[in-house]
Amino acid sequence: MLGFLGGTGPEGMGLALRLGLAGEPVFIGSRDAARATAAGESLRAQGVTTDVQGGLNEEAAERADTVVVAVPFEAQRAVLVPLRERLRGKIVLDTAVALTRTGGVFELLHVEEGSAALQAQALLPGSNMVAAFQTISARDLLDAPHPVEGDVVVCADDAAAKRLVMGLAERIPALRAVDGGGLAGSRYVEGLTPLLLNVNRLYKARTAIRIVGI
To answer: 10 — phi, psi (to 5°)?
Structure first.
């Protein structure tokens, strides 16, 4: 089962929807159990027929085999630290990007550890951290009738964890997983996100990346 921390937000809901439609059982976690239950009902209403459950973030961390961190970067530390023991030994997929917006322009925030995913690994030393999906639009993920096109660059130090997340990414039609090397590479992938958001603003579009030549 996939557990989603902060699963009622756009990124968590979008990934849970797409992976649920692909046949993965999902557990939506939230600080508000009622919101999580309502989110699960929304997924079922959109055609997810696999096991869908909702509850507190603590339950998602406890019950899931693989856990997706879908909270905003500014909430990451507060959410992860109390769950450290529940997440020990598990694969944790971090989707966060440290962003700020000034005058309509997106910029990458400085993170002492090097990236949001590297911070998450420092907070969860007993977990197998993977970084992915930072360049995939939550709005596109939520738009279920239309395919999500692009490449998902997956960075991790643990080879088995990386393979698992690459496999999950490719369960979503029209997405391709690309091996981005070790977790340190997440700093470069996260840096693409403000670039794409600024391009979206200029062109009034929703963009993604595609790596050619492989």
So the answer is: -60, -45
Report pLDDT digits (tens) over 123-151.
999 999 999 999 999 999 999 999 999 99
The predicted model scores a pTM of: 0.97
Give the three-state DSSP class for 22: coil
Cα distances (Å, whole numbers) of residue 113 to 4, 98, 116, 187:
23, 12, 8, 10
Q: Is 19 helix (H, G, I), strand (E, B) or coil?
A: helix
Contact between 115 and 98 under an 8 Å Cβ cutoff? The reply is yes
pLDDT tens digits for range 159-180? 999 999 999 999 999 999 999 9
Query: Do the Cβ atoms of 64 and 32 come closer than 8 Å?
Result: no
Alpha helices in the chain (DSSP H): 10-21, 33-45, 57-63, 73-80, 116-123, 138-142, 159-169, 186-203
